[in-house]
Design brief:
The protein is α/β, with parallel strands linked by helices and 274 residues long. The protein folds into two domains: 204 residues, Aldolase class I (TIM Barrel), CATH 3.20.20.70; 52 residues, no CATH class. It is 39% helix and 12% strand. It has twelve helices and seven strands. Strands 1-7-6-5-4-3-2 form a seven-stranded parallel β-sheet. Helix 1 packs across helix 9.
């Protein structure tokens, strides 16, 4: 099954960053698909899925998956089982890159496959069981996303591009590449991989998708983010957090962040950005 996308350039899943307002901006700019942050099948949080994202699950068992997917399946573009998160929380709870029991992994993928007609994928890192995970993806999934750093590396150090290219050559399903994708190297990655994810290069800069997709109509504006954030009732702390991200790359970003830090109300934040 093909991924439901207008292009091959996606917004990578990022905790704290991928709120609904930011995801909608990235989609407007040109992102073919957006991802939710990591979500548990037992989550009681309200999920804003107006961007029709890929809903990214983490789990260590099949319990709860059927009910969760039944609730949200009509609202998403696809599903993703995350096997690549390297966080301390993932280590503590045994999910993401720390879930290595292939029997359990296959049971979860099968359960997800049985409860959707939407595309299904898994997201992995460079790891000793990568070839085994690829076989599972080829058996059950419509794509596999890879990040060519180990869980010990986290997001530091250089991505192992050689490993990623070798992985792509073996794969019989589409491969989504994630790892330091930016304006300078995205074309090179698109020649090697089926799709690419933009992560840290998009933080505070949704317009990167406009640049990579030649969308000349989109203009970067925190005001547009703020308008969407208010529409979806995002908490004030998130509005301030994203305001700080939008200063990234500005000549006087430090002074701007210091000022934003002192702002106490939405009204004052609106006055500041105006």
């Amino acid at each position: 099954m093909k991924l439901p996308t207008k292009n091959k350039i996606f917004l990578a899943p990022m905790e704290e960053i991928n709120d609904i307002a930011f995801s909608l901006l990235c989609k407007k700019a040109g992102a073919g698909l957006t991802w939710t942050p990591l979500t548990s099948p037992f989550s009681k949080k309200h999920l804003d899925l107006n961007d029709r994202p890929v809903l990214q699950l983490f789990a260590t068992e099949t319990r709860g998956i059927k009910e969760f997917m039944k609730k949200y399946d009509k609202k998403v573009s696809a599903w993703d089982f995350n096997l690549g998160c390297p966080s301390s929380n993932a280590k503590k709870r045994g999910f993401g890159a720390y879930l290595t029991d292939l029997k359990i992994i296959e049971e979860i993928i099968k359960e997800m496959k049985a409860n959707t007609k939407k595309p299904l994928m898994i997201k992995i890192r460079k790891c000793p069981i990568a070839d085994d995970l690829l076989k599972l993806a080829e058996k059950y999934c419509d794509a596999i996303a890879i990040h060519p750093r180990t869980r010990a590396q986290g997001y530091s150090g250089e991505p192992d591009i050689k490993w990623a290219k070798q992985f792509k050559k073996k794969a019989k399903v589409p491969v989504i590449y994630s790892g330091n994708v930016n304006e300078k190297n995205y074309q090179k990655h698109l020649k090697t991989f089926d799709y690419i994810m933009v992560g840290r290069a998009a933080i505070g800069h949704p317009e990167i998708f406009a640049k990579l997709t030649n969308n000349k109509k989109f203009k970067r504006s925190y005001k547009d983010y703020l308008k969407l954030a208010k529409k979806f009732n995002l908490p004030f702390r998130q509005l301030k957090f994203q305001a700080m991200q939008f200063t990234k790359g500005d000549r006087d970003s430090r002074q701007l962040r210091n000022k934003i830090f002192t702002i106490k109300t939405i009204e004052d934040l609106e006055k500041f950005v105006n």
